[in-house]
């Protein structure tokens, strides 16, 4: 799992049936200051997140498929929670 920020919404009229009726968001992992940011990736939104929200993302396909009740569909990442705050010790 990782902490990420929702940076956009993905709209697709033609998609795999596993994504039917699913909200798909564009997310980017958050890093400490000075660290290089990762590329953005798509995730199925299971937590009703919105653009600008900081979220908890599951990036393991087996776990995501199990949460969604799927068997062999091509789904890898899912937003499983919206984070209110994070506290870091120095």
CATH topology: OB fold (Dihydrolipoamide Acetyltransferase, E2P)
* Mean pLDDT over the full residue set: 86
What's the architecture in CATH terms?
Beta Barrel
Count of separate structural domains: 1
CATH hierarchy, class: Mainly Beta
Outline of this structure?
The chain has 90 residues and is mostly beta strands. 9% of the residues lie in helices and 33% in strands. It has a single domain, classed as EutN/Ccml (OB fold (Dihydrolipoamide Acetyltransferase, E2P)), CATH 2.40.50.220.
Report on this structure.
- This protein has 90 residues and is mainly beta.
- The protein has one domain: EutN/Ccml (OB fold (Dihydrolipoamide Acetyltransferase, E2P), Beta Barrel).
- The chain is built from 1 helix and 5 strands.
- The longest helix is centred in the C-terminal third of the chain and has 8 residues.
Topology:
Blueprint: E1 2-10, E2 24-29, E3 41-45, E4 54-58, H1 61-68, E5 78-82
Parallel strand pairs: 3-5
Antiparallel strand pairs: 1-2, 1-4, 2-3, 4-5
Question: What features would you highlight for this structure?
Answer:
90 residues; 5 strands; 5-stranded mixed barrel; 9% helix; mainly beta; 33% strand; OB fold (Dihydrolipoamide Acetyltransferase, E2P)
């Amino acid at each position: 799992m990782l902490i990420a920020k929702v940076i956009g919404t993905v709209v697709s009229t033609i998609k795999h049936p596993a994504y039917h009726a699913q909200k798909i968001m564009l997310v980017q992992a958050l890093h400490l200051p000075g660290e290089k940011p990762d590329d953005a990736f798509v995730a199925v939104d299971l937590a009703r997140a919105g653009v600008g929200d900081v979220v908890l993302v599951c990036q393991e396909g087996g776990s995501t498929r199990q949460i969604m009740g799927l068997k062999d569909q091509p789904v890898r990442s899912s937003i499983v929670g919206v984070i209110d705050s994070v506290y870091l010790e120095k």
